[in-house]
Amino acid sequence: MATTMSNTIPVGTNDPASKMAEIASPNPSLLSQLAVRYRGATVEDLDPPSALSCHPTDPISHALLTAFERDYTHLTVISPTNRALLGYLSIPNLRSQLASGTVQETDEVSKAMTKFRRKGKVYKVITMETPLEELEMFFNGGVEGGERQGFAVVTDERRRFVLGVATRTDLEEFARRRPA
């Protein structure tokens, strides 16, 4: 008998059981509308490109060059010692910071990166098996009206390995290409 695991992991909540129940029961009508749109497709069907990662101590110029060579808009930032995911670097945001003089190309990535908050937050784990309707809800801020997201880091179920990055644009292109 197989059991399914929820794609959410409570981190530092005061009442994990009630938070999990809230997350596990999203708006059924919205989910069913999105399910019709994607007809069982998962993140794997987007064929997300492998994530490009840099270290927080890398110079910004190196991160820019790496992103430019592959035409990426986001890079993951990982620890050089244990490869733990620390945050990400948004290239459009980085360009704005460079233009405004907030950072220089010789500065370390850590000065410009967005760090993942670890305390008091419930993380949505996005895997290759995540249904696209859940991915769209994640991009739109989820059922709780959270912060809109422009991209998702795709990991294995246990969040040990970064497998790729899926963007809102990837999802929109998939929906546009797929016949109705």
Describe the secondary-structure layout.
Elements (H helix, E strand, L loop, with lengths): L7 E4 L4 H9 L3 H11 L4 H4 L6 E2 L5 H11 L3 E5 L6 E6 H10 L13 E2 L5 E4 L7 H8 L11 E5 L6 E6 H10 L3
Parallel strand pairs: 2-3
Antiparallel strand pairs: 1-6, 3-4, 4-5, 7-8
Word description of this protein:
InterPro entries: CBS_dom_sf (IPR046342). This is Cystathionine beta-synthase. It comes from Lachnellula willkommii. The protein is α+β, with helices and mostly antiparallel strands and 180 residues long. It has a single domain, classed as CBS-domain. Helices cover 35% and strands 19% of the residues. It contains 7 helices and 8 strands; from the N terminus they run E-H-H-H-E-H-E-E-H-E-E-H-E-E-H. It has helices spanning 16-24, 28-38, 43-46, 60-70, 91-100, 132-139, 168-177, and strands spanning 8-11, 53-54, 74-78, 85-90, 114-115, 121-124, 151-155, 162-167. The strands form 3 sheets. A 4-stranded mixed sheet has the order 2-3-4-5. The protein has a two-stranded antiparallel ribbon with strand order 1-6. Strand 2, helix 4 and strand 3 (74-78) form a beta-alpha-beta unit. Helix 2 packs across helix 6 (132-139). The longest helix is centred in the first third of the chain and has 11 residues, at 28-38. The chain is elongated, with a radius of gyration of 17 Å. It starts with 7 loop residues before the first strand and ends with a helix.
